[in-house]
Amino acid sequence: MSTPEDEERLSPLAQRWPRASKFLLSGCAATVAELATFPLDLTKTRLQIQGEAALARLGDGARESAPYRGMVRTALGIVQEEGFLKLWQGVTPAIYRHIVYSGGRMVTYEHLREVVFGKSEDKHYPLWKSVIGGMMAGVVGQFLANPTDLVKVQMQMEGKRKLEGKPLRFRGVHHAFAKILAEGGIRGLWAGWVPNIQRAALVNMGDLTTYDTVKHYLVLNTPLEDNIMTHGLSSLCSGLVASILGTPADVIKSRIMNQPRDKQGRGLLYKSSTDCLIQAVQGEGFMSLYKGFLPSWLRMQSDWITQVLPMRPSPVFSKEESNPDHLP
Known about the structure:
Layout: H1 4-10, H2 13-16, H3 18-49, H4 62-65, H5 70-82, H6 91-117, H7 127-156, H8 158-163, H9 173-188, H10 193-221, H11 228-258, H12 273-284, H13 293-311
Helix pairs in contact: 3-5, 3-6, 3-13, 6-7, 6-13, 7-9, 7-10, 10-11, 11-13
């Protein structure tokens, strides 16, 4: 006769360590998605940093020599000027970042949902709890992943530096971490963390709120059922709203992370996120905050698959269940 200890030992890994299993599955899915969509992320970063007005203060002529070319022409330019494989430059720290962010976000969300907030008496998880939990989980995950994000952004710009005749900053991923740590200390690894977590909070708020609202509307007011088509349409809308809310913070984050620094690790272009925002709007116009919007939105759809679906409870509800408390 088996004992409870034997039954626990023989039970599947996913039942014994559910959160660890979700972390591993999320990391694997994130790696695949990262490899498939990374050229979009690289193009987005190049567009966000291109044409910085703040470079004029340093006497850098890069702003005049690099006209704004749009997503497609920028991607083609990278292939023609640097080589096809350069579309994946910086993918290794990006994978590190995606695993840390996705896993940390999911584990935090599960903890908030099960321990802090809890489900309502009818076993449903209210929308407001989902939004707050998603925002908090996104902030935690993004803060943990900031060092990898920093290295990713800087490595994505190495090809551009080479074309401009500037010396390369890093020999590889581990050299990048070591150099940043040596020059700026632990604090240097978290450069740009403020706009980074702001973006995470805004993206999660727009994503979760819009997704559930659109899905609820489609199921109740159209012939569509709770199926993959409904999920896809809801994802399309939620990604659009999330990109509209999060792109300005993403632009600020990329510029602060990529700016040149002195020997003490202090930025030479921007004193803070607010200073970067002001200089961008004054020198380039308000729409400069939306550079890289299109590749960001396109990439958001793959992030929805690997990050949002595994953490969002999605019970099937019928058209008769019009009570907002039944939102997944």
